[in-house]
Amino acid sequence: MSLRLGDVAPNFQAKTTAGDIDFYEYLGGGWGVLFSHPADYTPVCTTELGKTALLKSEFEKRGVKVLALSVDPLDKHKGWVNDINETQNVTVDFPIIADEDKSIANAYDMIHPNASETFTVRSLFIIGPDKKVKLFITYPASTGRNFYEVLRVIDSLQLTANYSVATPADWKEGEDVIVVPAVSTEAAIEKFPKGVKVVKPYLRYTPQPNK
Ligand code: BEZ
Prior knowledge:
Layout (H helix, E strand, L loop, with lengths): L12 E4 L2 E4 H5 L3 E6 L6 H12 L1 H6 L2 E7 L3 H15 L7 E3 L4 H5 L14 E6 L5 E7 L7 H17 L1 E2 L10 E3 L5 H7 L5 E4 L2 E4 L5
Parallel strand pairs: 3-4, 4-5
Antiparallel strand pairs: 1-2, 3-6, 6-7, 8-9, 9-11, 10-11
Helix pairs in contact: 2-4
The chain binds benzoic acid.
C-alpha cells in the first residue's frame, strides 16, 4: 500500500554515493527530502540533480537533508555524478541511493508498473522532524520537477509547524499568511501582534510571523 500524508516514513539502510547510511540517523532531528528519478545518464534527471545541488544552501538554511534515489548501482551513480557536475556546473555532494534490490522504491511505492516495470518514477517526499510524510508528489519521467516549489512547500510547512499559520494559493515568501481555522479570531489577535485582517470569519490574514 502506498504511503499517505501523516504516515511514518519507513526507515531503511542504504548504499549511497556518500557511504552507507541509516535514513533516520542521516535525518537526525531535521527535515528531509527523499526523491527518486528513473535512471542515471538521462537528460531530465541530470538537470534535476544539478538543480538540487545548486540549491544546497537553500535546503541547508531550512534544516533539510536531501537524498536522491534510483535503482541503478553505486558505480553508475558515481560516474554519472561527474557528468552532472561538469554539465550543470555544480558539486553534487548529497547522497544518491543505489536501490538495486528496489526495497526502498517498493516501501515508498516509487515504481508504478503501468508507467515502467523497472524504473522509479519521479516521486518526492518531504519528511518532517517527527519522521512523518508531510508531502508527496509524483511526476512522469518526461517532466522535471520544480525545486523552487519544493522549497516553497517546505517554507509553508515550517510556518505551519512553528506558528500555526497556513499559506494561501500561490503564496510567496514575505506575503501575508492565513490564520488556521483552529485558532479563534480573539486568540489570533493575541498571537499575531502584527495584526489580523478578517475578510470573513473563516478567512483571516496576518503578516508572515517570522519576517
Ligand atoms: C530523463 O531523465 O531525461 C528521462 C528518463 C526516463 C525517461 C524519459 C526521460
